[in-house]
Amino acid sequence: MVNLRVDYAALALTLAIGAAGGMLATAFGLPLGYLLGSLLAVGVTAAMGWRPFGRAVTMPMRLRMAFVPVIGVAIGGAFTPQVAREALGWGPSLLALLVFVPVAHALGYAVFRRGGLDRVDAYFSALPGGLIESVQLGEEAGADVRLLTVLQFLRLILTIVAVPLIFLGVTGHSVGSAAGVQLTGADVALIPRDVLVLLVCGGMGVWLARLCRIPAYIITGPLILSALAHVLGWVEGVPPGWLIALTQVVLGTGLGVRFAGVSGATLRRAGVLAVLNGAAVMTLAYAFALLLQDVVGQPVSAVFLAFAPGGLAEMSLIALSLNISAIYVTTHHVVRIALAVFAAQIGARWFLKR
């Protein structure tokens, strides 16, 4: 039976550490500071085994999941008739994912095999998406679940850290300012009716998308309903900047606590392999961006971000802060995750048969 008890004092302390790290990183101009700062502060605390005031850092998954719909609602606010017209030209890059995902998977598999992993561990660790499904199916197929989990989380975290730094180096501008992520419609004051509509979009969107088995339902559902509400004129505003900043802190904190209990030897070994895999896949994503930018009418930055194998929620936040087509980026990540999960299911059946 699942233990649903929460140590609220430890949770409050964990969020305080994450918030302090986020504010400090933002003050120093770190890209996407609230997210990366909280991830770093809590991640170091968890990895070092520190117990501030005698309590270990903790973050219930359901709390993190409760904030993710905020991102979908915010992205839906960027949907306009112009975006709908542009979407008609996204077909080539969506089809390109059918090539990108297996090639990225093969690159990761080669890196992990050369690094000494057996076939099962390498196969599921190299999947460029679907973290939860990869770990679950990999465990059923006989993979080392601890190593697999660490490698998959490092894929997410290294991508989340690398992408804002890459954009900072190329453009000279931080991703996500101290004022928070800049959103279309953020300057519109919300009235109680708007707040109610956005809450319904978030809650009902998750429920309907889950009922319909839509991939990444926790973001896609709220996104679809929010886009519909904005197009129909039911609401103009989007979640305020402070809520987006809080969402970044919760997401970063949730990633950071995953390092609790990981041995130094496992972390060092997985770290080297994850960096090599990340460099290979990010280079591949950039190559696809160069090839597709003119075909789909999107800048290299948008296509690169759409193919970078990070977390859906985190990549969407970066897209919002860059003020590029967040809907374009999110759509591609949903398809990427769906393809990766399909590959995980095929691999699980194949390894179980053998």
Automatic annotation (TrEMBL):
Keyword terms, alphabetized: Membrane, Transmembrane, Transmembrane helix
Transmembrane segments: 7-28, 34-53, 65-84, 90-112, 153-170, 190-209, 216-235, 241-260, 272-291, 303-322, 334-352
Record's protein name: AbrB family transcriptional regulator
Species whose genome carries this gene: Pseudotabrizicola sediminis
